[in-house]
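Interim report, section 4.2 (structural modelling).
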Amino acid sequence: MSGVGATRASPGRGVTRKAGGAPPLDVERIRRDFPILSSTVRGKPLVYLDNAATSQKPRAVIDAISRFYAAENANIHRGVHYLSERATVAYDAVREQVARFLNAGSSREIIFTRGTTEAINLVAQSYGRSVLRPGDEVLITGMEHHSNIVPWQLLCEQTGAVLRAVPITDAGELDLDAFDRLLTGRTRLLAIVHLSNALGTINPVQQLVARARARGVPVLVDGAQSAPHLAVDVQALDCDFFAFSGHKLFGPTGIGVLYGRESLLERMPPWQGGGDMIASVTLEGSTWAPLPAKFEAGTPAIAQAIGLGQAISYLEAVGMDAIRIWESQLLAHATERVRDLPGVRLIGTARDKASVLSFVVDGVHPHDVGTILDDEGVAIRAGHHCAQPVMQRFGVPATARASFAFYNSFEEIEALVRGIERARQVFG
Amino acid sequence: MAGLSELYQNVILEHNRSPRNYRVLENANREAEGNNPLCGDQLTVWLRMEDDVIQEATFQGSGCAISKASASLMTGAVKGKSRRQAEELFDRFHRLVTGRLEPSEPETLGKLAVFSGVSAFPIRVKCASLSWHALKAALDQPGKIVSTEQP
Ligand SMILES: Cc1ncc(COP(=O)(O)O)c(C=O)c1O
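Predicted structure of the assembly:
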């Protein structure tokens, strides 16, 4: 793993495959690449376990952004001057890089957005609004983030379509029999979360996409949580849309990605109008630029895109397989330690999980758990995690959630455990 | 750490465990709900007013220790107070939890002074004030049910 975080790395560089799996991950070394991880909060070393909310940034990303502003800043696709040309090349290179990262067929299928939320709204308002008729159905699940619920509710109000949701089991898995019943001749779109931010469940997306596509139903996958933790191949998933956010993938805020199947994107009308998305404009009417510019109105988040490119390079240098293995070990260990604490109940016990441990502590409100952990330097999230239907399903107002990244260590899990024990003492 | 033990004082922990006035008030003539959408806290405050004086105050709901203990102590503190006195108390309480109270004032808060530790935790101010916002809504509304959105 030489050079991780220090330089721009090409995919897989420095990662030598050993027989039988990915190389082990040198967590101490990785942690040194993330400046914030050596800071202290409230006098204690920071233990950052709120990665599902947003992830920390490696120095390579931070440096790339400041370098852009210090030496390369210009608008793209507009100037004939040197800096503008360079910025344009750099921005377009990140699009190519994202296409490879997701294994998209072409970079024309990669649309830059502000994040997952904007990507989903784009699909709802462009694709959804142009195809949905009264009585049509949009199918989601009971474990969606609000950003994969509300855009569809707005769309249904606008079109007279109906929103349906696949229920979840006590373990926090999708009820697949119910899925088959709810996927009908009226379903026009399926929108599902790949990895649940509230429960940690990994959904069998490939299988669900196959069932939907057999009925001619296009599928949007919310990959906000999966892209940072699982190797994603949109062609293998065979989904039509895939959305993720840069800031959860160790990149900056303000940049995200919508992958869309080219044949669908071609047919979709633009969503937002403005500069950069047109071929020509007269006062009588306009024609649209080809993909992907058709969906990128206005000056985009250029520095953020460049930061995202660095984040992807960094991740690929570490290796998504190595990350998956390390995080599985962390989650398995954390699950065992936290589950065995008296008075603790895990929310979300699916067989296939990643990176998220949601729990409630008897007699201690999650908010109070969060404050006591914070006093130990441990950052977790307490609340409904923008997934209120999940809270309602499990009959809790909120949960405490620890969410992991590949830079977390086993010692940090012990800090979490100590914090939970202290919460029980304070409230004992 | 001092901050944490000042936040979770014994009185607060005790009121969290066994909140006072925790029931529906059958003969209430005012009622309001308080929601904190950020953390999912939700509680209802009931009042029985006679001639502008709070004869009785009760509450129910779910929330963190701070919001529950605050509601518990509030329902006790406003009993027998006029509407104006209750509003003045809220004003002082709010300045206490946001750290803007004059040094001479704490004693005028009585038991409510146990919430002084909240001021070191700005995000918990909303928890401490939730029931007070519901109380104020109930006082402001002659009608039966009002709802305060985020305080
Ligand atoms: C599963 C899931 N979907 C969507 C989002 C929304 O992402 P963003 O706020 O970056 O648009 C999140 C963020 O919390 C998420 O966890």
